[in-house]
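S1.2 Input.
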Amino acid sequence: MASPGSKIIASVGAGRMGRGIAHAFAYAGYAVRLIDIKARPDADFRRLETEALSEIGASLSFLAEAGVFSADAIPSILSRITLVNAAEAGAALADAHVIFEGVPETEAAKREALAFIDRHAGPEAIVASTTSTFLSTLLAGMTVRPERFLNAHWLNPAYLVPLVEVSPHEGTDPEVTRSLVALLEAVGKVPVVCKASPGYIVPRIQALAMNEAARLVAEGVASAEDIDKAILYGFGVRFSVLGLVEFIDWGGGDILYYASRYMASATGEDRFKAPAAVEENMAAGHIGMKTGKGFYDWSGTDVEAHRKRRIGEFVGLLRHLGQIKSPVL
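S1.3 Output.
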C-alpha cells in the first residue's frame, strides 16, 4: 500500500457523505479534494466551503473532546482538505487516484456526476459511488470506465462507523476491488464485499428490524422507550460480539427453525417463516457448532476455546458498559 502522501482522494459532492469521507481520509494522512460540481456564485461557494470545513472541524473537535486525540492536531488534519469549485473541478480530478461520488440520490444527479468524472479523471482512477439506493450494475452503465467502477456504501456518520460495504458489478476489474478494499483498511475501515443486491447487507437487515420495531410500537406491545432498551441491552450487545449468522450456529439452526415455525403460526405472518437455507440445513443435519457444520464449517475449530473467547469478549463489552456486577456474598 502506498503511503498517504502519494495518493490523492477526491469526493465529488460536498454534502454530508463527502464531508465524512474527507474527514476519514484526512485523519489518516491523505490529501483530499472535496469537489462541488454545481456552478454557483463565488459568495455561495465560499459559504459552502466555510460550512463544510466547520462541520468537519466540529466532528474532529468532538473526537478530541472524547479523548481520541489531541485537539492540537485539528488544524493539521483540516489543512489536508481542499474545497474545489465547479470551475476548478476538472483539474482537481485529473490526478486523483480514488474518486468517490457522493451527489444526491437521483438518477439525473448520478448521470451528471459520473459523466463529469469520465471527462476529467485519469484512466487509472478508481471511481466508487457511495449510493445507498442505486446498484452498481445500473450505475456501471452510466460510465465509460465500468471496469474501474464499483459502489462503496459508507454508513453514517462516515468518519466514525467502521464498516464500508463494497459492491462491485460483474465487469469490475477484481484488482480494482482489491485496491479499494486495501485502501479502506489502510484508513481504519472494515470493508466487506457483497454482490449488487438491493439494500446491500446492513440496510437490508436494518430495514426489517426497524419496521418490526415500528410494528411493536403500533401494536402496543411495548413503549418505544422499552423497545429501544431491549435493543440496546439485548439485541445490540449480543450482536456486537457475535454476528447474526454465527449466532445461528452458536445456538443451533434448529432453534431458529422451530422459533420461526412458532412465530409464523402464532402471528399468521409469512414474514416470520424460515428461509429455504435454514430448512435445508435442518434436513442435512447441519445445525451449527454442535454438529460441526452450519452456515460455518466448525470441523477444524476448537469450539470450546472459541466459545470461551467469545464469552470473554462479551464480558469485556458488558464491563465497559457498566453492566457487570459483583456477586452477593
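S1.4 Remarks. The chain is about 50% helix and 10% strand.
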